[in-house]
UniProtKB/TrEMBL annotation:
Keyword Aminoacyl-tRNA synthetase part of the UniProt annotation: no
Biased composition (Low complexity): 288-303
Protein name listed in UniProt: Iron complex transport system ATP-binding protein
Molecular function in Gene Ontology: ATP binding; ATP hydrolysis activity
Domain ABC transporter: 24-260
Region (Disordered): 278-303
InterPro entries: AAA+_ATPase (IPR003593), ABC_transporter-like_ATP-bd (IPR003439), ABC_transporter-like_CS (IPR017871), P-loop_NTPase (IPR027417), Siderophore_ABC-ATPase (IPR051535)
Matches recorded under Gene3D superfamilies: P-loop containing nucleotide triphosphate hydrolases
Coiled-coil residue windows: none
GO biological process: iron ion transport
Keywords: ATP-binding, Cell membrane, Ion transport, Iron, Iron transport, Membrane, Nucleotide-binding, Transport
Organism annotation: Streptomyces aidingensis
Membrane topology: Peripheral membrane protein
């Protein structure tokens, strides 16, 4: 998943030949809204069988790039290739059978139950001559089981917690049974525990099925913990891509995010941990030790 040629300094990524299979690729991709470019002449390969997280400050083009990968936004220049073919020349139904996408903050009709939501993931497989089948029923059940939402199947989305609701949406994307899964900020508006729950689920699905996953994330430490590869963007261009350890450096955080931070590495996994520094921050004195506490025996020890 590396760009295949050098761009300007903010796009500079080593031009290394990779043996990994690439099914999804951007070539000279320019994306625009109302004629104003948002992503500029971008080259990027998504390595098959990996979890890739796209990171960057607000407005840098992360979600726009993901929309183009999912055929939701037509390029103003260049192209997105899926299995070597321009994605925007492929029939919508064919793309939906190859790429599953969960947009940011999806909306469902009021009163829709989880089972009916997940069943919508089978729509790309329906035609005038092929209606709902046992295969569709089995695919929905597999998706519900994989996301731990089978016991929620008859409940409406309005009755669910944020984490449960997000798992239901992911189940819908899984029911498409595509090998490529695009997730736009799947942890948006979730507390930390539910963010971990959703990302644990995504990683389980990747490991169990070998799916290629591309997701947009804001939390840099979580991106480093869960992704094999990171793509850092700034102003619609690639600033860096590689392993989390290669990308998340104090220099990059300063240049891309305008963030003063210290990068440490988690002892158990080696994943980078980003510790932001406030301009008001000053070293704090170590807390005074209580002599009486020091003399007390450890909890549970005999006195």
């Amino acid at each position: 998943m590396s760009p295949r040629k050098r761009q300007d300094p903010m796009d500079a990524v080593p031009d290394a030949a990779r043996a990994a299979r690439v099914r999804l690729r951007a070539e000279g991709l320019t994306l625009a809204y109302d004629g104003t470019p948002v992503v500029h002449a971008l080259d990027l390969d998504i390595e098959d069988g990996t979890v890739t997280a796209i990171i960057g400050p607000n407005g840098c083009g992360k979600s726009t790039l993901l929309r183009a990968f999912g055929r939701l936004l037509k390029p103003a220049g260049g192209q997105v290739l899926l299995d070597g073919r321009p994605v925007h020349r492929l029939p919508t139904r064919e793309v939906a059978g190859l790429v599953g996408m969960l947009p940011q903050s999806p909306v469902a009709p009021e009163g829709l139950c989880v089972a009916d939501l997940v069943a919508r993931g089978r729509h790309p497989h329906q035609t005038w001559y092929r209606r709902w089948s046992r295969e569709d029923e089995a695919a929905v059940e597999r998706a519900l089981r994989a996301t731990g939402t089978l016991d929620l199947a008859e409940r409406t989305l309005d009755e669910l917690s944020g984490g449960q609701r997000q798992r239901a949406w992911i189940a819908m994307a899984l029911a498409q049974e595509t090998e490529l899964l695009l997730l736009d900020e799947p942890t948006n508006h979730l507390d930390l525990a539910h963010q971990m729950e959703v990302l644990d689920l995504v990683l389980d699905l990747h490991r169990d099925t070998g799916r290629t996953v591309v997701l947009v994330l804001h939390d840099l430490s979580l991106a480093a913990r869960y992704a094999d590869r990171l793509v850092a963007m700034k102003d619609g261009r690639i600033a860096a891509c590689g392993t989390p350890a290669e990308v998340l450096t104090e220099k990059l955080l300063r240049e891309v995010f305008g963030l003063r931070a210290v990068v440490r590495h988690e002892e158990r996994t080696g994943a980078p941990l980003v510790i932001p520094l406030s301009r008001h921050e000053a070293p704090r004195p170590a807390p005074a030790r209580d002599a009486a506490t020091d003399a007390a025996p450890p909890l549970g020890d005999p006195v």
